[in-house]
Amino acid sequence: MAFSTPSAGQAAASDLTVSDVVVNFQGLRAIDGVSLRLRRGEVLGLIGPNGAGKTTLVNVLTGFQQVDSGDVRLAGADIARWKPHERSRRGLVRTFQSVLPFGGLTALENVEAGAMATGISRKAAREAAFEVLGSLGLADKARRRVDTLPFGEERRVGIARAIAMKPQFLLMDEPAAGLNDAESDDLLDVIHRIRSEIDCGVLLIEHRMSLVFRLCDRIQVLQQGATIAIGAPDEIRADARVRQAYLGDEAV
Q: I want to staple 212 with a disulfide (CB 3.0 to 4.6 A). Which of 23, 45, 51, 57 is the partner?
């Protein structure tokens, strides 16, 4: 089945795209001809069963996994051979589910480290860190060691560090993992603000479907390394193949 994701040549000049990407692991096809487009100011959900290829695809986008074939482009530039740090310097930033902020440092120092990764001075990085922490309601936590903060606030510090890197595209791997309902609602508000205030495209890998359906403009569904559906939340919720492959009763 063909999907509406355009080729790299058809996509807008500012988009992040992969086109017909194939990745093989020792004879196993982990990614099978997947194309994806993420636009500035858009939240795109990437969902599917465990082992569907979601994290591998994000690794392709961020330079931690080379492709066997296909194109990877950022704002029209072929970045398939760029190193991860080269991509982050150009505004392609990632958060990890299992990697928390530097626990022995303060919230301010964590976010300052992210800002300095853009190449600015220590003084400018500190000013940027204060600004980002304030925008996320963490100004009063700036001098606190991150490992003394509640889990939800610790997660927000990690997001603040990513924002300080001035992303054009932010790839978030299960940001709601371990959060309670109230913390998930806070996360939803934070991602909405990232999208609207800094015109950042967000790719969201998340198993909490209530968050995905409330937050995403479009959703792309992977199964066994291939795309089985792309569409608006209502279209994905109603798709019989997606319900059978992944959503089940959660789509009701």
A: 45
Q: Are 216 and 44 in contact (CB under 8 A)?
A: yes
Domain check: are 120 and 45 in the same one?
Answer: no
Task: Please tell me whether residues 121 and 40 are part of one structural domain.
Answer: no
Residues 155 and 171 in one domain: no
| Cβ pair 53, 30 in contact under 8 A | yes
- State whether 175 and 80 are in the same domain: yes
- Which range of residues forms the domain containing residue 127? 102-164
Closest CA to 153 of 169, 170, 139: 139
Beta strands 28-38 and 16-25 are: antiparallel
Angle at 233 between CA 230 and CA 236, to 5 degrees: 50
Beta bridge partners of 18: 36, 72
Question: What's the one-letter identity of residue 18?
Answer: V
Predicted TM-score (pTM) of the model is 0.85
Checking if the pLDDT of 80 tops 60, the result is yes
Rounded CA separation 216/211 (Å): 8
Helices marked H in the chain — which ranges?
Answer: 54-62, 84-89, 107-116, 122-135, 151-163, 181-197, 209-215, 233-238, 240-242
For residue 45, give the CATH number of its domain: 3.40.50.300
pLDDT at 23: 94
Q: Among 87, 81, 18, 40, which Cα is nearest to 225's?
A: 18
CB 187 within 8 A of CB 162: no
